[in-house]
Each structure stands twice: as C-alpha cells, then as structure tokens.
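S1.2 Input.
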Amino acid sequence: MAGRQLHKLSARKAETATEIGRHSDGGGLYLTIETGDHARRAWIFMYRERGTGRRKELGLGSAKGPKRSGLTLAEARTKAADARKLLAQGRDPKKEREVERGSAETFGAFADAYLKSILPGFKARTAAADWKRDLEVRCKPIRPKRLGDVTTNHILAILSPLWMTINRTARETRSRIERVLDAAESKGLRSGKNPAMWKTLKPLLPKAKRSKRHQMAAPYKDIPGIVRMLRAKQEGADTTVNQAAEFIILTAVRTSEARYMRVGEVDFSERLWTVPAERMKTEDDPEGTDFEVPLSDSAIAILKTVIPTGAKPDAYVFAGQWSKDHAKSLGQNAVLHALKAIYPAMTTHGCRSSFRDWAGDETQFERDIAEMALAHKVGDEVEQAYRRGTALKKRRKLMETWARYVEGVSNVATEGDAEVVGLPALGGR
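S1.3 Output.
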C-alpha cells in the first residue's frame, strides 16, 4: 500500500488535473487519468494481497471532472477508508466486492449449476441421482437462501434429524454441501469459513455409532468349488471378469483395488503388486498408504494371462469387456454379477470374510498377519514400520497357503511345512 501520508490532493486539483498518469492521495488512493482533456478519469485503491504480497487494484468508480460527473475526492476517500478497514480485518476488498455482487445468487441455483458442471466426472451409475436427491430434497431449507447467508446452524438443522439414524447419508450430504460452498467461494460468491466443514460441525454433533453392514460370504469350504466354476465359465467367455473374480479371491483385496489395477503396479520379478496410496484411502486411513500385495503362483498365472504383450504401464490389468486396448476398467458390479451367477449368497467383499475365517479357523498364522493381509491397521505407526519387512514375508507365506487351499491341493496350518488338513488335488489351471 502507499505511504502513510493521507489527503495529498485538494478537491480542486482532483477535479481539474489533466496530466496523464496516477495522482496519489495517500493511503492507497489514486486518481488515474488516461487521455488528454476529456480523459477517462477514475479512482482506484491499490494494496498488497495478504500472504502473497502481490499488488492488486480495486476500482472505486469514475472521478468527477470539469465536464463530467463522478465521485468527488471526499466520496473516494470514504470508499478507500472502507477498503483499509477490510484489510485491517484480514479481508480482501476485491474479493468482498465480488461476494457482494454475487450475493443475490441462491444456494439452490448455484448448487444445480455446480452439479451440472461436475456430472462428466461421475463414474458410479447412481452418483448423479444421489447428488440430486441431497441437493434438492435434503437441502430444501437452504435452497432459497443467498450463498453468503448459509450458516452452520442451517447445516445442523439439515443433518441433525439424520445423524443418529442414517449417519452415512448425513455424512454424504454434509460433504456435498461443503463442496458446493467451496466452489461458490472459489468463484467469489461467498467468503469466510465454510459452515459445512467437518472441523466446525464435529463438536456440535453427537458421536454416531456406525453400524457395520455384514456382507454375504461363502463358507470357506466352498471357495475351491467356486473357483473351479469360475474357470469353467472363463473357457467360453470373451471377458476377464471371471479371472478378476478369482484374482480377488486369491489376493483378498477389495474389488476397487483390483478393478483399477494398472500394469505398472506389478513387479513380476519380486512377485509383488503395489497398490498406490490414493486407492487405499479409507475412513480409518483417510490419507492412504501404499499397500504391497504378495502374489502367489496362481495370482501370477492370472496376470500373465490377462495382461497383453506390450501393454503400457498405465493400462488396466482387468479391462472392461469392450475395452480391447485396456483403457477402461471393468464395470463397478461386473465381478459381483460373475460371483452371484455361480454362488448367489456371496458378495465381492464377502471373499475377504471367507479368507479371514479360513485363516482363523484352519491355520496357525498370527491374527495380526491375517489382519495385515486385509490391509487392516495393526498397532501404532512405530510398530507398523518395525514389522513391515517381517510382515511381508509372513503374509507371502499366508497367501501361498491360501492359494493352495483355493486350488484344492492342501491346507497348511502352520507357518512351516506341516499339513494338518489334506485335500485331494482338483486340477490345475
């Protein structure tokens, strides 16, 4: 901002000056004259943006001259003083004006336009309908309100009736309101703290007990038969979905982790698949961390079958039925439908339950190793870092044992070679 001296100009000079350029009145206020006697005359306020130090200009309006109307020097000084007050409060005068100009826009109108703009990025079939329901039905009380008038109390009034009964829906609604208001702020239509931020709402809402949905799972004794049927179906299929289902069973990973698996994530020499952190984000681990999946002989065999020669590192391993170039992944429910076609009382997440039941009932592997194989957090950060190497070796033994059980060859109950349950060989790949 300009020097501390204020009121450098006189009222007469402000109205009669013709020299092209900027004439300082002090405190960031300038009279600008652009051309000759009939010049374009205007008042501007110059200041530096807080945090970055970048110079910014705020137009205050045209300036009064000998032959034209406009703001007088006194009126311009009042506007400049108002801008300085905003700066002293840590607020940006230019952004405040943009907010004021857009203050007439309602939450409902802006939310509808925002939803339309992000529709192309949705992958789930129901995403658009879910957003529309939340923004039109659940947010009905705030739709007529101006964007700048939506407060935390308004958000609480929407969330409170849902919070203890359908908590997941309440959380999704809150997140969508936050995104809408963030977008409005980015467009200069509102300012200040977002009233839908979880950090703001958390102390005001009771702690809800989240009910765990139990996924249908096949008894682990049925898994070898399910895999045989998947292989039989694969023989006449023009898709990788059955192989993807078997791979998910063998590795006990989440369906989304396998669906979006890319060729470059697989290290065949190390027999290891590294799932990137961004695909490992969960409510318990919102930041996500890379997860290493040891690959058994059976899992390796599937990957060598489905990955085409010369595939690019970013190609999807399990491609959609019509994606011959592996540029698109399997559909969201493709694996689920493949499993249910064979075993109706089963879900993809249930495959993980089958594995966990087997590990607990039929083997002597440590409980923590089985939990870590499912990418569940065990112990604190120090313990996790300390055990990383050993856990990977033990998890590799566990997954090889599971693969032999799935193949119907044997069920090894210890971390050594002793077999406590012998099963007849049911045929290889």
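S1.4 Remarks. The chain has 16 helices and nine strands.
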